[in-house]
Amino acid sequence: MRRLVVLLAVALGGVAGCGVPLDSEPRAAQPMATAAATPSGGATPGTATERICLVRDSQLAPVPRRVTTPLSADAHLKLLLAGPTRAERNEGYTSALTGAPLVSGATQDGGLVTVETGSQDLGRADDVLVFGQVVCTLSSRLPVGAVAFVHDGSRLRVPRGDGSLTAGPLTIADYAGLLATE
Asked: For the segment 54-67, what is each residue's pLDDT rounded down to a tens digit?
């Protein structure tokens, strides 16, 4: 029992001496300086970070991008559609969206982003990386939890990461097997 009391006293003494001073009155929090991790300078300096998902080695690879202001869902989608920067291409990033007549816009309503497609002739199982890039990118937005694809107001059946088709909203979990692990 005595050892337990001594160990407890030592642990509490270590916490008390952790270097965080106690103030007698509340004080304003100071903003923390943060730096965005970017692939070898491939991003433009900005004040906000948005994540897009590119493809590297046939897997979805999240990449941070610095932007001047937080983006709308539609602008975030357009950032993805612009494809990888030169620096990102030099690091092996590509996009399955290149030349795809996939989207014409996106709207966000709470936790759901709806993507309007430019064609109803989508949803082949080999398009999985195309849809995975869009879902991975748009679900990185808070509070987005799901992405749905529509054409002329009707939900489309699109492939999940396992190749199965669904007309329901998709989440990043539907593409978990395609996410790069680094």
From this structure: 999 999 999 999 99
